[in-house]
């Protein structure tokens, strides 16, 4: 079964607005990662946050992690049309041998120019 | 680095035929993963290898699916016989957890259509 569940399933915003995507998971984790997938392409790693971290930034990306609620959020600030893609969270469970990432269903983001 | 290379990019076959998907991971990566993506089920982990040894194949749907990694630079995913419900995009990904990498690099995928 899927470890991570994203919310919302789809999000449509105007260029310049902020986009927030949420991810919930079920079991304790070593880390949580966010990936991006452009249509017809493979996934690309965006950012990793460890279980002992609460917030992390990378350029226009901000990720938060709340282990007590087993949830994470990805914020993209000042969105651009080029940010249009699907975004997935992936969890590295504490109970698995290293490397086993389980992906959520993804959020489809559409940024209109 | 050329990244993770998958072939073929597209495969169309008829039900009952054998299908072989190929993957060349990034040199030096010690983990290799096979995922399947469909609209209904999302991204499913099928199997993964560490240093060419299969670690977890619990995601392999049934005995029709098999995967091998004969050396550090090559892996195959075979479906025999193929069925229409196997139609999906199959991704190979590699990572270097052994060196503290902890993230995956994905290939461009193989779009499989079983008629």
* Helical percentage of chain B: under 10%
User: How much of the residues of chain B is beta strand, in percent?
Assistant: over 45%
Class from secondary-structure proportions of chain B: mainly beta
Categorize the overall geometry of chain B: globular
Overall mean confidence score, pLDDT of chain A? 92
Rg of chain A, Å, rounded = 13 Å
Q: Which residues of chain B form runs of ≥5 with pLDDT under 50? A: none
String of helices and strands of chain A? EEEEEEEEEEE
Percent range for helical residues of chain A? under 10%
Question: From N to C, what is the helix and strand string of chain B?
Answer: EEEEEEEEEEE
- For the secondary structure, the number of strands of chain A is 11
Oligomeric form of this entry? Answer: heterodimer
Which two chains form the greatest contact, residue counts included? Answer: A-B, 24 and 23 residues
Q: β content of chain A, as a range?
A: over 45%
Radius of gyration of chain B equals 13 Å
Quickly count the helices of chain A.
0
What does this 3D model show about the protein?
The complex is a heterodimer of chains A (113) and B (115). Chain A has no helices and eleven strands. Chain A is an all-beta fold and 113 residues long. Chain A is globular, with a radius of gyration of 13 Å. Chain B is built from no helices and eleven strands. Chain B is globular, with a radius of gyration of 13 Å. The model of chain B has no long low-confidence stretch (mean pLDDT 93). The chains are: A mainly beta (113), B mainly beta (115). Chain A binds chain B through residues 2, 31, 33, 35, 41-45, 48, 88, 90, 92, 96-106, and chain B through 4, 31, 33, 35, 42-43, 45, 48, 50, 55-56, 91, 93, 95, 97, 102-109.
């Amino acid at each position: 079964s899927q470890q991570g569940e994203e919310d919302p399933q789809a999000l449509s915003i105007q260029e310049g607005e902020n986009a927030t995507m949420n991810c919930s998971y079920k079991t304790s984790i070593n880390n949580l990662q966010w990936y991006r997938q452009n249509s017809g392409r493979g996934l690309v790693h965006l950012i990793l946050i460890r279980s002992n971290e609460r917030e992390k930034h990378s350029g226009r990306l901000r990720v938060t992690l709340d282990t007590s609620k087993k949830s994470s959020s990805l914020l993209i600030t000042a969105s651009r049309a080029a940010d249009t893609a699907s975004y997935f969270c992936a969890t590295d469970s504490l109970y698995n041998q290293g490397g086993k990432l389980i992906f959520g269903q993804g959020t489809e983001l559409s940024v209109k120019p | 680095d050329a990244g993770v290379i998958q072939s073929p990019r597209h495969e169309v076959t008829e039900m009952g035929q054998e299908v072989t998907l190929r993957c060349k991971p990034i040199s030096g990566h010690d983990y290799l993963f096979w995922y399947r993506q469909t609209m209904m089920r999302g991204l499913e982990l099928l199997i993964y290898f560490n240093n060419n040894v299969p670690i977890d194949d619990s995601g392999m749907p049934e005995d029709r699916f098999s995967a091998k990694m004969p050396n550090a630079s090559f892996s195959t995913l075979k479906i025999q016989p193929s069925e229409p419900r196997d139609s999906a995009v199959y991704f190979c990904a590699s990572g270097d957890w052994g060196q503290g990498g902890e993230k995956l690099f994905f290939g461009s995928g193989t779009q499989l259509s079983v008629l």
